[in-house]
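Example 3.2
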Amino acid sequence: MTRRATFLTASIAAGTLALAGCGSPEEDSEPAATPDAPSTTVDETSVEDSPTDTNGEGDGSSLETSREGMPDFSQFGIEAQEKEFTASPEERGTLSAVRDGEHEGYERLVFEFSDAPSSSIYARFVDAASTGMPDVGDTSDPMDGLEVLELTVNGLVDEMTVHTPELHADEHWYPPQGDLLAEVSLGLLFEGTGTYFVGLNAETEFQLSLAEDPHRVILDFATP
């Protein structure tokens, strides 16, 4: 075969392959996306509106505690504060989760309960982490070098066994983040009253507030 014949044969073969690779647009093209089709992607910023149960093992995420809303800084103070859920005397809750979050201007500590405690919630700074009930034994809790805020929650279920395993009375929970909150002692559950101690690296103004669905006791502490 001459060089010219070889060249023509190769050209024809190449042209045939090119034509074979060109199908009709209707067969090969991808269907166009509909601009108005609803997206199935979940907006992750909406997580802060969803309940989070940390069972005492909060990851310290500010996102977890931001869903409780911004605090009212005009209500911050050093003096004792008292709140009460709107609940029937028959309702008695149990502590189910503790979590914290660091936010601009404040740190937040959240106690979550299975049901609304049926009586008052009281928060105040104290000299030491002690329940002051000698008839139930030594209930003091060393929090050396820390300022101590006592949180008393009345109207709880008496049995300690209903607490989640991570939230036994007399045990400690350590906030995973933040410079102000140092530790939380679950204190004592006695005759329907839960006593919890919050150890802080400095005494500061705070606000006690409540939230429902689920039932939460919220402590906000002012930071510099």
